[in-house]
Amino acid sequence: MIEQILKWLKRTGIVLVSLPLILIGILILYEVFGMCVNHFATARQTKKLVADLTAEVPDIEITDIHSVTGNTGPTGNHVDCLSVVTFSTQIQQAELEKRLYRHYTYNEWSCFLTQTEDGNYRFYLNTSAPFTDNIEGH
Q1: Which of 18, 42, 68, 99 could covalently link to 81 via disulfide, CB atoms 3.0 to 4.6 Å apart?
Q2: Confidence (pLDDT) at 3
Q3: Residues 6 or more apart in contact with residue 138 via CB below 8 angstroms
């Protein structure tokens, strides 16, 4: 009888000692999963942006594609999906914005088109990641 009680106490002690390690492992796996999903979302966003630009601008020549997953602004702990595509075309900026308006809503912070000093255009798209409170944004 005492032997069974000691055996039960030993098992309970092992579970109690290992429980924090198991919970830490689950938390780490959750954060890694969130990072993978966020990077996939950024890659998908960038691919869609390139496809939309290519479909709407017939003479487009893409010179640079850049994407970042992480905290891209000074506003706190969060994760963003940033896609920036630099390209050249003979179409003027107003016409480009008009063509891309059905795909994107422009504003001063997260979605805009600018002309660079060398005459190219840069389309900037910044959206929230699916796992916005991931460790990658801290």
Answers
A1: 42
A2: 86
A3: 71, 77
Mean per-residue pLDDT over the chain, rounded: 92
Distance CA 87, CA 5 (A): 74
> What are the residues whose beta carbons fall under 8 Å from the beta carbon of 136, sequence distance 6 or more?
34, 35, 38, 69, 70, 71, 79
Distance CA 20, CA 26 (A): 10
Q: Are 71 and 77 in contact (CB under 8 A)?
A: yes
Backbone angles phi, psi at 61, to 5 degrees: -130, 105
Read off the pTM. 0.85
Q: Give the other-Cβ count within 10 Å of 137's Cβ.
A: 21
Q: What is the largest CA-CA distance in the chain?
A: 89
